[in-house]
Each structure stands twice: as structure tokens, then as C-alpha cells.
Design goal:
Layout: H1 2-10, H2 17-24, E1 27-28, E2 34-39, H3 46-57, E3 61-67, H4 71-77, E4 83-85, E5 99-104, E6 110-111, E7 114-115, H5 116-125, E8 129-140, H6 144-154, E9 155-162, H7 165-171, E10 173-180, H8 188-206, E11 225-226, H9 241-255, E12 260-264, H10 272-282, E13 288-290, H11 299-309, E14 313-317, E15 332-335, H12 342-349, E16 362-365, H13 372-391, H14 415-418, H15 421-434, H16 448-467, H17 478-488, H18 491-502, H19 506-550, H20 555-559
Parallel strand pairs: 1-11, 2-3, 2-5, 3-4, 5-8, 12-14, 12-15, 13-14, 15-16
Antiparallel strand pairs: 6-7, 8-10, 9-10
Helix pairs in contact: 2-3, 5-6, 6-8, 13-15
């Protein structure tokens, strides 16, 4: 993405306003009809705004949509275009047949062995321009041969004009007008037309500028392309398939009383967090955004406060929580977007699965198939497997090892050719299992507390054994012992013992009491004598110390 964005800066060629005025002279509309316009390389939005203003002045109800990957230009375009996506078109999700007309002015450059003009034409006109929709294609004349096949197969009523003499020589640009053909089988006549048009477009690539009429040729009275009304209007509260899936997953988890954290990557000026928050709120969920305004040393307390407040869903950039934070209260993690750094993805994915967690943890990844997101997912899987190889979590002989990215310059294993999306998801799941400590015992949430109790009991016993501690024998069942003793003695002997108790008289009790008194007095006398002896010893000791003190003193010392 960074590479594409940097090249976009060098390959940006805005259409001069005077050329755009001439382009618009051949376009018409029905007053009162709703029209949707798309410019997937809108730059600063000047050409698209000029187009919208022209159609509005002709009575159409026009809505403009722009896509711009370069941030500074996208911010300017936002001020003049109704809707702007600040990213590459590969990251967008658009409805099929959603646009009445498209102005295509892609970067003029070669990438990955293909002209970018042909890449944009192929990727964007197949599904998103409605049948009968008008294409305005701006490209260098010598690139017509690269785009001839797609233009001839998808479009009818094709006409080519070049820029006026004032601007042509700079980039040798031409404008292709065309209408999107209806989908379905072609007649023999249509096939012959396709073949002839393709040949003519290829020939135009090699001819000079005088072989193509200039835009300022005044034929717009006879050559006019009417832009159709939008057959599939985009509702103001439209939600993409990925957004609908996110809402479904979040509502399911909240019904199970499980908190959710949603990870994004393109935030700040892209406002991805705000978009997700709006979609969820529209569906009855009240999420909170954790952004960079909360400093790193305050995030722990912030998360604790949100947990106490009862917050159920948090949206944040995964980089803000990848290290040092435990998300024990949020056992469900959903990656809305992924980061190209596999270490960031792995760290962020483990924030809930920490020591002390007693809830079932799950990590979900939302990826649009057949888009740039799937290509990124494939790259990350290769990097994840490579990291596991380095860490020794898997062996070279493991089946997963074939997916490793073994080259620092290019991906030697082209996963997009090797695997279907379902197979990629399965391989990712296997890699995720290898990412867990092999010594961990995985149990269900219902079994967890019982397993913890058993583990602590086992740990306690092993600790006692290591310390040589022996449990004391406690005889707490005296009654049973007495009963056993009495059972072992004959009844006659027991009767004799109790008979002696029965003959015990008061004189016997008095004699015992007198003996106890004598013993007490004797004990007191002994204690008193010992005390006197102790006092005597103490006095003798003090006297001795005093004599030692005076020993060696003269009469002069006493006089002093």
C-alpha cells in the first residue's frame, strides 16, 4: 500500500479544466433523474466537481463519489465531493451496478508487468458501472493497444478523441467515450463489432495525433452520450456486506454477555473507527473508541474504568494495545483490518488470552474475498508460518512449512494461485493452533473452574512432597476408640470397676482434699525459699561490682 501510494504521487496527471469543459459538451442527462458519478482516481476532486456541476445545471440530481489514495489530495477532495474514500480502490467495498457514469483517469505507469490504465479498467468497469452506464476514459494514446481487448468486449458506441493542441503534446492523452454493454450472450454481429473495434483501437496506438479528432471539434450536436438514471441507488444508510457481518457477530456475542473489542488499522484521517461506531450505533450497539489521545500509561486505567461502566464494545487501532495490556474482560477479538506487521497482529490477538483468564477466548478475522484484503491476508499467513519456523514451533517437515515466506525480496509461494480462500482460512487456523503453547491444556468454559481446583490441589500436594512435609495423624474419633475399648473388656470386670466407685465415701473425698492442701503449702514453701536465695545472690553480686569499682583508687581520688 505504501508503495502504491508513493507511486500515485508521481503518476498523478489532473485533467485541465478547459479539456474537461470540452469533454462534458458530449454528455447529457434527463432533468429530474438521479445520477451517481464515480471517479476512482479523483485527485483533488476538481474534474469530478466540474462534472457534477455541469449535470446539476442540466437538471439532474447528481451524487458524486471519489476514491483517492494520496492523503493530502483526498483531504482537499472531501471539500468538493459528496463522498470520498481515502484509500486505494482495492480496499473499498462497492455495490454492483451502482454508478451511472465513471470518469477513469488512472496513473500513467507500468506496475507488475501491466499498465495501470488496463488494471483500473479491468477491475472497476466489470461490476460497478451499470449496464448502459457511460465511461469517460482518460489515457495516453500509445496505451490504447493495452486496453483495446477489454474496451471492445465490455463496451459499445466507442469513440476516441484527443486533447487539443494546447495540451496534447504533454502526455499525448486521449479520451475514450463508451457505453457499458448489457451482460449476456453476444450475437454474431456483436462479435464482429468487437473484433473490428479492438483492431481499430490497437491501430490508434501507433498513429499520430492527426489520426484522431480533437475534443474541440464541434460535433457535440450529433455526438452525445446520455447518462442513465441510477438503476441501483445507494441508500444514505447503506452498509457493506462486511459491515453487516460485523454487526451480526457483535450482536451474537452481546446476547451471550460477552464483551467485544474490534481492531482497526487505518484510523485518524481515514475515520475508520468513527464509521464502525456509526454502523453499530445504528444497530443498537453503543461502542466506545480508544484512540491515541489516551496516553500509553493511562490506557490500563481507562480500560478498567470502561469495564466498571459496563462498556460492552471497544473499537481501537491494534497498535495501541499490542503490548503491555491485558484485555481479560473482552474475550472476543474481531480484526476489522489487519496490520502488515505480523508481530503486531500476533501480539494484539493474544491480549485476551492471558494468565487469569477464565472465559473462552476467540479471535475472528473479517476479510473480503477477491480483494486486496485477501492478498494481504495471504502475505500475513506466510509471515506467520515463517515466524513459527524461526521460533521452532513447527518443523520444516510440517505441512504448514510450505506456506512460509522464505524470500526477503518476493513471495516465492504464490498463495493466490495455490489455494482457494477456504483453504487459506484453514491453513491460518492451523498456524494459529501452532502459535499456542503446546503444554497448555484447553478446556471448555464450563469445565474451567473444576480444572483449576484440581490443578491447585495437585500443585499443593506436589509442593508438600518436595518439602518433605508429612501430614499429622489426627485422632478425632475418640468416641469410636472408647467404644472399641469397652467392647474388648468383659462385663464382669466393668461391673467390679464401677462397684469400687460406688463404695467411695465422703471421708475418702476429705482425705484427698487434705493431701491436695498439704501439697500446695509444700510447693509455696519451696518457691519462697528459692526467691530468698535469688535475692541474696543479687546483693553479693552488686557488692562485688562495687569493690571492683573502688579497687586501685587513691585518697586523692576520693578527695576529688
Amino acid at each position: 500500500m505504501a508503495r502504491l501510494e508513493s507511486e500515485a504521487k508521481g503518476g498523478f496527471y489532473p485533467t485541465p479544466s478547459e479539456e474537461m469543459d470540452l469533454i462534458l459538451k458530449r454528455l447529457s442527462c434527463v432533468p429530474g433523474e438521479s445520477i451517481t458519478l464515480l471517479d476512482p482516481c479523483c485527485g483533488k476532486g476538481a474534474a469530478l466537481k466540474q462534472w457534477k456541476d455541469d449535470l446539476t445545471s442540466k437538471g439532474a440530481i447528481t451524487t458524486s463519489f471519489g476514491i483517492e489514495i494520496e492523503k493530502s489530495r483526498a483531504e482537499i477532495a472531501e471539500k468538493v465531493i459528496d463522498h470520498v474514500a481515502k484509500c486505494g480502490y482495492e480496499e473499498t467495498r462497492m455495490s454492483h451496478d451502482a454508478f451511472s457514469a465513471m470518469y477513469l483517469n488512472p496513473p500513467f505507469m507500468q506496475m507488475n508487468g501491466e499498465r495501470m490504465e488496463n488494471t483500473f479498467l479491468r477491475d472497476l468497469t466489470g461490476d460497478y458501472l451499470q449496464p448502459g452506464g457511460v465511461l469517460i476514459f482518460n489515457l495516453p494514446q500509445y496505451v490504447l493497444k493495452d486496453c483495446a481487448k477489454i474496451l471492445a468486449s465490455r463496451f459499445v458506441n466507442i469513440k476516441v478523441y484527443r486533447f487539443t493542441d494546447a495540451n496534447y503534446d504533454t502526455y499525448k492523452q486521449v479520451i475514450v467515450y463508451a457505453k457499458r454493454r448489457r451482460k449476456g450472450l453476444r450475437s454474431e454481429k456483436e462479435r464482429r463489432y468487437q473484433q473490428n473495434i479492438e483492431k481499430e483501437l490497437v491501430n490508434f496506438s501507433y498513429l499520430g495525433k492527426h489520426a484522431i479528432p480533437s475534443l474541440d471539434v464541434a460535433d457535440w450536436e450529433t455526438c452525445s452520450y446520455e447518462i442513465p438514471s441510477n438503476e441501483k441507488p445507494v441508500p444514505p444508510e447503506y452498509e457493506t456486506a462486511k459491515e453487516r457481518k460485523l454487526v451480526e457477530l457483535v450482536l451474537q456475542r452481546l446476547a451471550q454477555n460477552r464483551r467485544v473489542i474490534i481492531y482497526t488499522n487505518y484510523t485518524q484521517e481515514y475515520r475508520t473507527n468513527q464509521r464502525i461506531q456509526m454502523v453499530l450505533k445504528r444497530n443498537g450497539v453503543d461502542p466506545v473508541i480508544l484512540d491515541g489521545k489516551i496516553s500509553a500509561d493511562q490506557r490500563f486505567d481507562w480500560l478498567e474504568d470502561q469495564t466498571k461502566k459496563g462498556t460492552k464494545v471497544i473499537i481501537t487501532n491494534q497498535r495501541l494495545v499490542e503490548l503491555g495490556l491485558d484485555l481479560l474482560a473482552f474475550p472476543t477479538i474481531i480484526f476489522w483490518q489487519m496490520n502488515d506487521d505480523i508481530n503486531t497482529v500476533r501480539q494484539a490477538a493474544k491480549r485476551s488470552h492471558r494468565l487469569g483468564q477464565h472465559l473462552h477466548c476467540e479471535v475472528l478475522y473479517l476479510v473480503n474475498d477477491k480483494t486486496q484484503q485477501m492478498a494481504q491476508f495471504q502475505r500475513l499467513m506466510s509471515r506467520r508460518v515463517s515466524a513459527l519456523l524461526v521460533e521452532g514451533a513447527i518443523e520444516r517437515s510440517d505441512a504448514l512449512a510450505k506456506y512460509a515466506d522464505t524470500s526477503s525480496s518476493s513471495l516465492t509461494n504464490d498463495l493466490s494461485k495455490m489455494l482457494e480462500s477456504s483453504e487459506i482460512a484453514n491453513a491460518w487456523e492451523q498456524a494459529a493452533q501452532k502459535d499456542l503453547d503446546s503444554n497448555l491444556e484447553l478446556v471448555s468454559e464450563e469445565e474451567f473452574q473444576q480444572k483449576i481446583t484440581e490443578a491447585f490441589a495437585k500443585l499443593t500436594q506436589e509442593t508438600k512432597n518436595l518439602c518433605g512435609y508429612i501430614e499429622p495423624v489426627v485422632e478425632d474419633n475418640i468416641t469410636d476408640d472408647l467404644e472399641a475399648l469397652f467392647d474388648s473388656v468383659s462385663d464382669e470386670l466393668i461391673d467390679d470397676i464401677f462397684a469400687n466407685f460406688d463404695t467411695f465415701t465422703e471421708d475418702d473425698y476429705a482425705a484427698i482434699e487434705a493431701i491436695e492442701v498439704m501439697e500446695t503449702k509444700k510447693k509455696e514453701k519451696i518457691e519462697s525459699k528459692a526467691k530468698v536465695e535469688q535475692i541474696s545472690k543479687s546483693k553479693n553480686k552488686r557488692s562485688s561490682k562495687k569493690e571492683d569499682l573502688y579497687d586501685g583508687l587513691s585518697l586523692f581520688d576520693f578527695a576529688m
